[in-house]
């Protein structure tokens, strides 16, 4: 079954980026290594701080748009509900 991910990345100063992908490991790798030029590479946004999984791409895109429309405080509350220390959730992948 195909999976789609809505994710939030952050940098050291907690600037946020919300995205959607069908391969979270590859996408986080691209962010961490600044492979794709743009916002995340410019602001060194390399920490995966939040993720959700969907089986329907339409649901994932709708959720991404919903989160992107939120005020920053609501995004922070979403992250801190599951990741209060803002740990990089991708750090455990290689272990």
* Series of secondary-structure elements, N-terminal to C-terminal: EEHHEHH
Supply the CATH superfamily name.
Answer: GIY-YIG endonuclease
Radius of gyration of CA atoms, rounded to a whole number: 13 Å
Q: What helical percentage do the residues reach?
A: 25-40%
Task: Describe the overall structure.
- This protein is of the alpha+beta class and 95 residues long.
- The chain has a single domain (4-82), classed as 3-Layer(aba) Sandwich (GIY-YIG endonuclease), CATH 3.40.1440.
- The protein contains four helices and three strands; from the N terminus they run E-E-H-H-E-H-H.
- The chain has helices at residues 24-32, 39-42, 57-68, 72-82, and strands at 4-10, 16-21, 47-54.
- A three-stranded antiparallel β-sheet has the order 2-1-3, sandwiched between helices.
- Strand 1 and strand 2 form a beta hairpin.
- The longest helix is centred in the middle third of the chain and has 12 residues, at 57-68.
- The chain is globular.
- The relative contact order is 0.23.
Task: Give a nutshell description of this structure.
With 95 residues, the chain is an alpha+beta fold. It is built from four helices and three strands; from the N terminus they run ββααβαα.
């Amino acid at each position: 079954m195909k999976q789609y991910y809505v994710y939030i990345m952050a940098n050291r100063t907690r600037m946020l980026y919300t995205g959607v992908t069908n391969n979270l490991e590859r996408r986080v790798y691209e962010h961490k290594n600044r492979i794709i030029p743009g916002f995340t590479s410019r602001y060194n946004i390399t920490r995966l701080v939040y993720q959700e999984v969907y089986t329907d791409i339409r649901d994932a895109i709708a959720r991404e748009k919903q989160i992107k429309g939120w005020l920053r405080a609501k995004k922070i509350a979403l992250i801190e509900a599951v990741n209060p220390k803002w740990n990089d959730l991708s750090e455990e992948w290689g272990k």
